[in-house]
Write a structure and sequence with these properties.
heterodimer; A: about 250 residues; Rossmann fold; 7-stranded parallel sheet; B: about 325 residues; alpha/beta
Chain lengths: ~250, ~325
Amino acid sequence: MEIAVCVKRVPMVGGKIVVTADGQDVDTRMSGFTVSPHEECAVEEAVRLVERQGGSVTVLTLGPPAAADQLRDMLALGASRAVLLETDGREWGAIATAEAIVAEVGGPDRPYDLLLFGNEAADTGDYQVAVRVAHALGLPCVTGIKNLEVTDAGVRAKREYRGTEEVFDIPLPAVVSVKEGINLPRYPSLPGRLRAKRATIETHEPQWRSDGLTKERLRVPAGESKRAEVLGTGADAVPALVALLDELGILS
Amino acid sequence: MTVLCLIEQAGDGGVADVSLRALTFARNLAASAPEPSGIAAVVFGDAAAAVPALSEYGVTDAYAVELTGYVPQAWARALAGLAAGLSATAVVAAGTDHGSEVMAHLGAFTGLPMAANCVSAGRNNEGTFELVRHRWAGSLLEDAVLDASPALLTVAVDAVPAVPAGEPAATVVHAFRPELGDGDLLVRATESAERSAGVSLATARVVVGGGRGVGGPDGFGVLEELAGLLGGVVGVSRVVTSEGWRPHKQQVGQTGTRISPELYLACGISGAIQHMAGCLSAKHIVAVNTDPDAPIISRADYAVIGDLNQVLPALIEAIRARSS
């Protein structure tokens, strides 16, 4: 089974998000970068499928030259080939991103059985790149998947929806976007990390284009920095805590 | 000039709360245009049970599409047909799994941009849309301009309240039959099994949260006990599920479940952005943490500075003493 997984480099945010002075980006001077969480699970799922079915995993990202770090992290998890669609660091919209991915994975020399995505990127949260890629390639698509099995006829994909479970049976080739929780990604092995360090990363430079949705600025929502009223310290705070729960109607 | 809104139905056929929020958003958008317009709704299946709420929320025309079950691409095809037929200025859906997926298909069919998880949107004199949308699941806001017709928007439902229209509308129901293309019916939900009973994390009135401060997989008993006493459930932070201490279905956060309880008692949780994005809708947050400078202290309403392993047993004892 030949699988391509699309991942995105995003800032590793901890307790606070700071926006740059020009309002155009998240300030990353104090943070590292990581792969968006749903996508790390997509890579893990691809590696598990290939371990069972044979084949190989290609990992693909659209991002600045430094996104090669995230590709190497995914190679260390078990992907065997990595492609960087290199940008100048500008943010790409969903339509242009999907077009660049299609140009890479859609050719006749790239016969993928399965294209995996994360359900949505942690930063932009556009919820649509996978679907746009599927349409451009004429492939069936399901999103938000928490369980994936290969069947005789293709794949069976499951997800939760408002307290029920939805099941989709779709033929391959197909596009599937997954959510964290579909698996627990492994820690990279030492041999995996060494192999990733030596691996060659193929690089292409797609052309940016505007797609009609233009960011003006980013801002932190109002009311974010309040300070909690301290009820007390340790077990001594319990009477005040009980009184609060009572006032909120929790104990009635 | 119409704003078209996708309706998701509750189990009894009525309009789901997320769609009441989307309808409120759609009505505000329609009223913002230089020439105010009405709102129309699309219902898949039987529209009768939805009509009272549609009327209350100001929907003048409802289009009932006969398609059995959830068939995302066919739903999008119906929206595309109606949007073209009504010359809709915007198509709006709740930012749920279904809403996001169907709107993404609609974006792909039409080649138009789709702005996800909008908090507000208005049409300006130039005919473009000024909108505010979520980034980082609501931890940041983006001010953006959308230049497209129709505007395709999903609504950040945990940030938009449901407000009925000032005047109810006389809703007229029309049958609509979309022209389906090859493959539009290929992907459909073939089974929809009920999950196990019990209080769900998403709708629980009380959530007792545990993070790294719980210390390990064996430390959750005290949280379960307290949650049981308060008629609530246990939720956990991402580090807890990444370490494999608890299953992912208990995760509260950007990549887990989004909760909206009366009370969120967050114990041993530092308050990372990714976690707090899951509890934007909690009415009251009480943090129990050993570190008075933890980020959660500046996001919570109340705090107890201390070790959860001392505070929670004492709290359980006090609640039990009170009820006996």
